Amino acid sequence: MSGGHFLWGGKPITFETGESIAVAVAKAGVRDLSAGEGGLRRYFCGIGACQNCLVTIEGTLVEACLTPARDGLRVDAPEAGHD
Amino acid sequence: MTERQPLRCDVLVIGGGAAGVAAAAELALAGLSVELAEQRDALGGAYHRQPAGRPTAVHARGRRQWSRLVDAFARAGIAPRLRHVFLGLDSDGLAMLDDRAEGRVLVVRPRALVIAVGAIERVLPRPGWQLPGVMTAGGLQMILKEGGSPPPGDILIAGNGPLTIALAADLARLGHPPVALIEAGDPFARPAAALRLAAYPGLVAEAAGHLARVFASPTPWLRGERLTAIEPRNGRLAATIRDRRGATRTLAADLIALHDGIRPNDFGLPANEESDIVVVRAGDCREALGIRAAIADGRHAARQVIALLTQGPSIADDDAVLRQRRAQAVLGDLFRPIDGADPLAALPDETILCRCEGRTFSELRAMLAEGELSPREIRLNGRFGMGLCQGRFCADNVLHLIAAARPGDPAEPPMRLARDRWPARPVSIAALAADDDEQRES
Amino acid sequence: MDGRGGKSVVVVGAGIVGAASAYFLAQSGFRVRLIEAKAPAAAASGAADGAVSVASKRPGPMMTTALAGIALYRQLDEEGLFAGLFKQRPTVMVAEDESEVESLTGHADALAGEGMALRRIEGEALRRYLPDVSSGVRLAIEVGNEGHAIGYEIVRRLIAASGVAVERDTTVHGLVESASGRSVAAVATSRGRVEADHFVIAAGGGSADLIGLSGIVRPRKGQLAVTERSPTLNAALPGALMSCRYLLSKDAIAGAAGTAARRFGLVVDPLRTGQFLIGGTREETADTGNDLAAIRHMLASAVRLLPPLARLRVIRVFSGVRSATRDGLPIIGRMPGRDNLVVATGFEGDGICLGPLVGQAVGRIVAGVPSELDLRPFAPDRFGQRSLVA
Ligand SMILES: Cc1cc2nc3c(=O)[nH]c(=O)nc-3n(C[C@H](O)[C@H](O)[C@H](O)COP(=O)(O)OP(=O)(O)OC[C@H]3O[C@@H](n4cnc5c(N)ncnc54)[C@H](O)[C@@H]3O)c2cc1C
Ligand SMILES: Cc1cc2nc3c(=O)[nH]c(=O)nc-3n(C[C@H](O)[C@H](O)[C@H](O)COP(=O)(O)OP(=O)(O)OC[C@H]3O[C@@H](n4cnc5c(N)ncnc54)[C@H](O)[C@@H]3O)c2cc1C
Ligand code: FES
After folding, report:
1. A42 — contact with chain B (CB < 8 Å)?
2. C217 FRET partner, CA 20 to 30 A, in B52, B159, B308, C158?
3. What is the DSSP string of A68-82?
4. Are residues B131 and B237 in contact, defined by beta-carbon separation less than 8 angstroms?
5. CATH number attached to the domain at C88-146+217-325
6. What's the CA gap between B15 and C14, in Å, rounded?
7. pLDDT on residue A38
8. Residue C70, ligand 2, Cβ within 6 A
9. C295 pLDDT exceeds 80?
């Protein structure tokens, strides 16, 4: 299976084709997707329903669980206080 | 106006799970022009979503059935619109699809709409259920199916119902059995229901397969027990487990998967009588009856649409669907929690009720003490159901608490708390505004 | 409690006007029954933007009244009644092209003539003041001392403070005349007759039918959108951003109602929560749907004015129906020929701003105390219909 790397908060994360950003990040052991302590960003439902897994890609908010990972993507935590 | 013209078709099917794919194939076979929108980048839905080449827990018969369905769908010549999130129907009868790849909203004017967006899981609130590392069983299953392997760390599964067993079996098969499987019910203590289940050999065989795998693994299946609280401890999660005698103990894990049943994902969806468009719901988003019913229900919805569009005779209920409804009722009895007390009644005040806005039980209790506020006022002033999930993970619980606080009142359907307006999901302003002629003077 | 302790009042409608009336009446010792067809804030007051503002007004009775309305918000905020609910912020009106600059300048002169606190901001200072707005914006006029309040929150606070229990799900079908024919004896409701010494009709769009003003008050729908939170962008906006095209839109309506089915105004209001409220339309209809074309156009205009909005997501759209009168002024006062009947309706897009003030005025009218406000321009008999109550 092919795949690649994207950057999560500047840190490279490996993924395989077919994985969403959320799945790749979870497999890398990252659980808290918030920008700071006590934020509410995290993976929960996996189907776009809970909206807890929001991340920013090129400034736009998207659900990590619905967004396919792509090579070279820069993915970051949303600004604190978004939730 | 330089707006693009809406795309026209006979039927727009929303959801590329079993129900949506079955409906679309059947409709196309009947000669109707069909579009299908699916929010993910692949068809399959909650059950059949693993990418090709990944190991799968779905039994061989299920896989064959799905591949036949996908073949029929492909033969019908439907090119599914993937990564298109359905936002709803506007007041002019236009269906809006958030095209995530293009960053714009595609507008469709269908004659009929089949909505097959599946179920969402019920998760009972518990102290700490908002912590990182706590997810739904479906969320964890998504990682397994899509990623082929579990995330690192010890996993604890807790909740109610047969789907948690399937998840534990999947984890065991992947060489990563959970530290424990906590089940509020105890099927062994419900012999009458167990006997009635014998009428559904397919379900029994599937369940037996999953159970056999769990029993062969080191995972204890702790029945009649509840996970009552989660706390962060030393970088891990400490879960409080209460057994049927009321004794508690603590289990440590890195990830906790919760699941207390499923319910239709019918939030923010247009009502059938709202417009001139025929709107039919299919599969788990009509009634959460599982994969066996979903395919039959998708086909049934297709026949219903055809009847409605041609003013033909109305369509009788589908036998397979009725059968699965009875089967689900038996499963409900079989897994009925041992502790019959209302699990929401005794939760500590600071427990989070609304995950989106961080609203707690005490905030709702204070509002309820104020008098006869309607669900709408509780939503607006208490902000329950006002967050980004639009009530999907709080509306049932809030309404349950309202009903409990007001015995004698007729129960309010959950939609009185959530909304039935578009957008059914948050949508980027850039995408929504993309096709407006900005230069036009108003 | 004073000497009015024994007198009873029925207030019909638990929108902001009815809630405020009930509050002030209860404060001055009346026994109040608040009768509501559905639930508090079920109509316009629960589906409004909540600008507490005069920025878009022309000198005249509405401006004078709105200024008093804002002053009361500030007072009730300081006294604690509205604590936490009233966001004080300026309104920032912006102009893009030459003709807009010209009309905004004229408008600012008129506001200044009324003694209002204004700041004219241009050039470099404008870019510092509004770092995120489009470079097309050439002039900003900051109108100070204004604010924002959410209608349903104010309604809830007023009702709680009044101590009055709202009689929900109770529709008033009509008024019952007294034997003399000069006053009202009772209201006929879906749960039976309710008698009282005084009656206040504050039923918003439901008022006209009760008092025979059907041809004079018309529904005017508005659509709005709410975004998710964006603390940084929200904090960088000093106040509500109002395109001065909004002025032109309002003008057009006052001039010739019904010439077009709908008009767009543009206000981007940074809410207390970190969200943005974006509005709105004015449509000559009572239907309450939301159509993509309108929302899309509003959002596109908002993005043109404040480009970083493009990054945010819309989480809700909604619509509400304003009650607009033929001459654009509300109807406040005693009904001619009915000694104990007071009406307060027809607030179009200003009822959130005016509601508390009008409730206070209604309380005074019922009590027979002279009002500090000049209510003559709003007199119910100005439409020349002699027998308003059938
Ligand atoms: C955790 C879990 C475990 C399960 N395990 C079993 C099991 O072991 N055995 C069994 O029989 N059944 C199981 N089920 C149930 C089974 O998955 C469902 O009954 C079946 O998938 C229902 O099919 P469906 O087509 O109705 O819905 P789904 O399969 O859920 O398909 C819905 C589709 O709609 C898409 N969608 C949702 N919202 C939008 C939108 N706004 N726009 C566009 N697309 C959208 C989704 O991405 C999805 O692809 C399980 C369900 C869950 C949640
Ligand atoms: C889209 C929109 C944006 C707006 N923006 C602003 C703004 O920025 N600033 C501002 O100041 N104002 C704004 N407004 C205007 C403001 O919302 C209204 O003027 C104000 O809410 C009117 O209050 P009300 O109490 O008169 O009427 P309503 O709020 O309509 O209340 C009337 C109540 O009476 C009840 N009722 C009706 N008939 C009967 C009956 N027969 N029996 C019993 N009860 C009955 C109704 O159920 C309702 O609860 C806006 C309005 C809209 C629609
Ligand atoms: S995890 Fe729930 S929306 Fe992504």
Report:
1. yes
2. C158
3. B--TT-EEEPPPTT-
4. yes
5. 3.30.9.10
6. 42
7. 77
8. no
9. yes
Report yes or no: C139 and C104 within 8 Å, Cβ to Cβ: yes
Percent of chain B with pLDDT strictly greater than 90: 78
* Tokens matching residue C41: 């804030």
C74/chain A closest Cα distance in angstroms: 28
Confidence of residue B437 (pLDDT cuts 50, 70, 90): low
Q: Which domain holds residue A52?
A: 4-76
Q: Is C165 on the interface with B (CB under 8 A)?
A: yes
Are the beta carbons of A61 and C231 separated by less than 8 Å? no
Measured between beta carbons, the chain C residues lying within 8 angstroms of B436 are: 296-297, 299-300
Tell me if A83 is assigned to some domain.
no
Per-residue pLDDT of A27-58, as tens digits, reads: 999 999 998 877 889 999 999 999 999 999 98
Number of domains forming the structure of chain A: 1
pLDDT digits (tens, 9 = 90+) for B349-408: 999 999 998 999 999 999 998 878 888 889 898 888 888 999 999 999 999 998 888 887
* Site residues for ligand 3, CB cut-off 6 Å: A 22, 43-46, 48-53, 63, 65; B 139
C104 with C122: CB under 8 angstroms?
Answer: no
The answer to pTM > 0.90 is yes
Domain residue ranges in chain C: 8-46+153-216+327-383, 88-146+217-325
Q: What is the ipTM of this complex?
A: 0.96
| Nearest CA owner, ligand 2 atom 26 | C204
A18 closest CB neighbour out of B39, B51, B100: B51
Residue A82 resides in a domain: no
Contact A79 C312 (CB under 8 A): no
- For B396, C8, C321, the CA distances from B131, given in Å and listed in that order, are 21, 54, 42
What CATH number is associated with residue A62?
Answer: 3.10.20.30
Q: What average pLDDT does range B58-62 have in this prediction?
A: 77
Beta carbon of C204 within 6 Å of any ligand 2 atom: yes
Task: Mutation target for C interface from B277, B363, B432: give the one with most C CBs within 10 A.
Answer: B432
Nearest CA in chain A to C309: A60
Token readout for C33 is 């029954």
Element (H, E) at C300: helix C292-305
Give the closest residue (by CA) to ligand 2 atom 51: C48
The CA distance from B105 to B92, in Å, is 16
Helix (H), strand (E) at residue C64: helix C61-78
Are residues C318 and B377, on separate chains, in Cβ contact within 8 Å? no
Cα separations (Å) of B96 from B20, B92, B264, B434, C226? 17, 11, 21, 13, 18
> Are the beta carbons of C310 and C362 closer than 8 angstroms?
no
Name every chain B residue with its beta carbon within 8 A of the beta carbon of A20: 146
